[in-house]
Amino acid sequence: MARPRNGLTSMSGIIGGINYSLLFAGGSSAADASTGILTALYGGVSGSSASTAVSTGNPLTDLKLAQKNQTADVAKEVKTPAVARDIAAFTKAVANAKDIKTALSNPNVLKVLLTANGLASQIAFPGLAKQVLLSDPSVSTSLVHKLGNSTWLSTVKTYNFAKNGLAELKNPQVAAALTRGYAEVMWRQSLDKATPGLSNALAFLGQASSVKTVDDILGDPVNRAVVTGALNIPQAIAFQSLTAQEHAITSRLDVKNLQDPKFVTSLTDQYLLAMQQNTAVAGTGDLTSLAVQARGLVV
Predict the structure, then answer these.
(1) pLDDT higher than threshold 80 for residue 285
(2) Which terminus of the chain is more solvent-facing, meaning fewer CB atoms within 10 Å of its CB: N or C?
(3) Which of 8, 34, 21 is nearest to 248 (CA)?
(4) What's the whole-model pTM score?
(5) Superfamily, domain 64-191
(6) Span 106-130, pLDDT tens digits
(7) Residue 298 pLDDT more than 80?
(8) Model confidence at 296: pLDDT above 80
(9) What angle do CA 41, 119, 30 make, to 5 degrees?
(10) Is 18 helix (H, G, I), strand (E, B) or coil?
């Protein structure tokens, strides 16, 4: 097994500190588990809303428009029937819950809470999600620390349900922030349907300057997707050793350049153009093909 760092290893199913092989156990084949691992690495949101965005046909123009209109477009997204219905169901479930355990057992609560915090891929694992959210971030041996996933840890620390209980979800400011966050994710999904990769592009532009090492790229699904997409590195590199993954990126990219806004913009544009060209090979079926082909891949 390759040396662990940032929770990434080759074909072990351990990504970001979470043993996805266990989560996907029960699938019909190794390819099913591999597909799940690829989806976890490169993103994927369950429960997508209907698309409200429209593409100009030029992904670079679409990016500029999304940056300009984000605030107004997210406000419009809140009022769309699907998003309004999800937010209403969340609000009702929180109001009717007798305690935090009851609230976190409700799928309507988990849907909004996890999606708003960048954990939509975990909606499929409600039992695990509930346990992690109830774990105590101040205890080093708690489940959230055992997972070793920075997004989970940040979320658990933010709400600290182990200490604050249901009162945290019933806090009007917290509820408002969650519903806004949920609407923004739905808006970003809408962007992706119109312009593949646009959501990742927006996120990458905002966080690229925080990338200091190659593992900051490999350990974050947005960074990984944009960089590997722009550099034309196959997604299935995820099934190689960590050393091979690192080399695939560092042989093509000087990580220090991500501190240069002009370089980041150019790299992001390259990613969007690549996504436009490769739209036909995107999707679950192609992830499965990549997973099946992953063994023996050399980049």
Answers:
(1) no
(2) N
(3) 8
(4) 0.70
(5) AGR C 984p-like (1.10.3700.10)
(6) 999 999 999 999 999 999 999 999 9
(7) no
(8) no
(9) 40
(10) strand
C-alpha separations of 169 from 89, 107, 109, 232 in Å: 14, 15, 9, 42
- How far apart CA 247 and CA 278 sit, in angstroms, is 24
For tokens 């590199």, the residue is 237
Which neighbouring-strand residues pair with 14?
A: 19
Q: Which residues contact 26 (CB under 8 A, 6 or more apart)?
A: none
Adjacent-strand bridge partners of 8: 5
Q: Long-range contacts for 184-187 (Cβ within 8 Å, ≥24 apart)?
A: 184/74, 184/77, 184/116, 185/45, 185/115, 185/116, 185/118, 185/120, 186/49, 186/77, 186/80, 186/82, 186/83, 186/115, 187/52, 187/53, 187/70, 187/73, 187/74, 187/77
Residue ranges of the domains in the chain? 14-53+196-293, 64-191
Phi, psi of 59, rounded to the nearest 5 degrees: -60, -30
Q: Which amino acid is at 25?
A: A
